[in-house]
Amino acid sequence: MVRYLVVANQTLAADALLDEIRRRAEEKRCSFHVVVPATHPHEQLLYTEGGARAVASRRLEEVLAWLSGHGVDVDGEVGDARPLDAIRDALRWRSYQGIIVSTLPPGLSRWIKQDLPNRVRRAFGIPVHHVIGVRWTAPLHSGADG
Known about the structure:
With 146 residues, the chain is α/β, with parallel strands linked by helices. It has one domain (2-132): Rossmann fold (3-Layer(aba) Sandwich). It has five helices and five strands, in the order βαβαβαβααβ. It has helices at residues 15-27, 49-69, 83-93, 110-113, 116-124; strands at 2-7, 30-37, 74-79, 98-103, 128-132. Helix 1 links the parallel strand 1 (2-7) and strand 2 (30-37).
């Protein structure tokens, strides 16, 4: 079974990322481990680490439920606020055949400004697929309530 590490925060529910995960799940038997770095929301001047973790946890729970409901083998965790460290921590416990990094578009994304996708490639030597999505705006719907 192919196992992928997915790293996202503000774009966790972006169509581009969800489509990428579903496409890979339909192509071959695979599973996904989602890591949501507990980064602080850049639109908020004041925040707490606990608040950032709570936001990341809510996003993670909702996406895990949605993906599981669509037949995807998935689990996840809230990770370190520094995405590279969150990835490093996840790699301590399991091996992955690929990493999917989801960011906001250039100009908006701190992760792109930090060159995160390329830094991940160089640091871990695992194939990295970079997905560009839109900011988290609303809860996912199962389809049952429209």
